[in-house]
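thread: overnight batch results

M.L. [08:02]
morning all. the overnight job finished for the chain we discussed friday. pasting input first so we're all looking at the same thing
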Amino acid sequence: MQAIRKRYFPALAEYIRGGKDASLHQANELGKQLFGYNQEEVLAVHEECVQELAAAVDSKEAAKIYHRSYIFLTELMVISRFESGCMENREQSALEEKAIRLRELMPKSDRSFERVKNKYENVLQHMDSGIALFDSDGLLSFINVQMAKLLDIPRKMLVGCNIREIFLHRELKISTKRTILRLYREMFMKRSRYYEFQHKDGKHLLATVTYGDQLDGDFLISVKDVSEYKQIEQSALQNDKLAMLGKIAAAIAHEIRNPLTSIRGFIQLLRPYLLEVGKEEYARIILTEIDRANNIIYEFLNSSKPSAPMKQATSIEHLIREVVMLTESESLLRNCEITVESQLSDAMVSIDIKQVKQVILNLLKNALDAVEEVRHNRRGKIDILLSSDGQYVRVIIKDNGNGMDKATMSRLFDPFFTTKEEGTGLGLSVSYRIIRNHGGAIRVDSQVGDGTEFSIYLPLAE
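M.L. [08:03]
and the structure it wrote out:
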């Protein structure tokens, strides 16, 4: 039966996929090839193949498949009888009786199969993972809705195809073809059981292949969206980094600040003597550098453990406009325009005003630095958009600077990571911690040459 199925399944699937106008050429050729085979085995293989094809579609489509499959079978058996002209009338009558019996049994088989199919189909078809099952001959025998969405091709056009036919499908997009090639290379040539990749819409997907004795020679491919798990993993990694930073800060902060305070005091005492010898500039430089070191240590302490937020209900729109007023003069000097667009109607958030203002100021300062780098090409522009989903307020700060690559974005909230010559690399890690302490989140989206967009999410006040 396996030899019959290897020829029968792809021929039947191709005929059914072809629609009403499909030619029965495949049935004719297959009828000639199956001359001499046991007709009962052919009928058994036919019913098995029809059930697999019907499993990939809804109930109405399944009924059409059963009807069209009978046309295919009738044509095949007519050709097979014609080829075996020496068959006795008795044998021909017996064969016709079997065909009639099969036709009568098909509606019953359809109903019984539908009961079983409906029991499990909803589970498989509506899973959040994409599922595709290939038989031992490499033919696709089942695919669920989610996998068809990932391929962006209707399920009924895929069942019965092998991997090569799927890859060469005229409706398959080039980006999806590249993904299939990578999957094939990793999971079949390198025999990897798992492969993680990023979809064209930015989602992180995990592909898993299962094969072996437990599937009787078949192999199952599943694809699951793991974007949320990646975010949790990145958040956990960021928290680990900040926790380690806190331990370091607690150990060394006072040991450094105390000597610096003493040095600053002695330099101020020596300042008159330096003035007499014309070296007062040395004192000024030393004091400036000591103050800069103190500021770095202060930011270091805040980044490791910002004080608990002293929350009070306030209008986020009012706060944003107040911060914009503070940076208005600097933005004019840098030839940058800042606009605020609000979709909020007196939305209130419960926040520590001082801390959140520090975050907004820090992000605006970074945006001003970004647009200043390209101001000789175009005028700088920073857009601030305020919106709400009923649970969170979303503050978007978007600039038209040079943007960032993915490598820079992945390290953006790391302590001491900076792309500025005079930066400390602590501003964004402090901002990240402050927003998290408020029960919110901060996200960044950027592309090289297309600017940067920071999104801050803060819960609405109860």
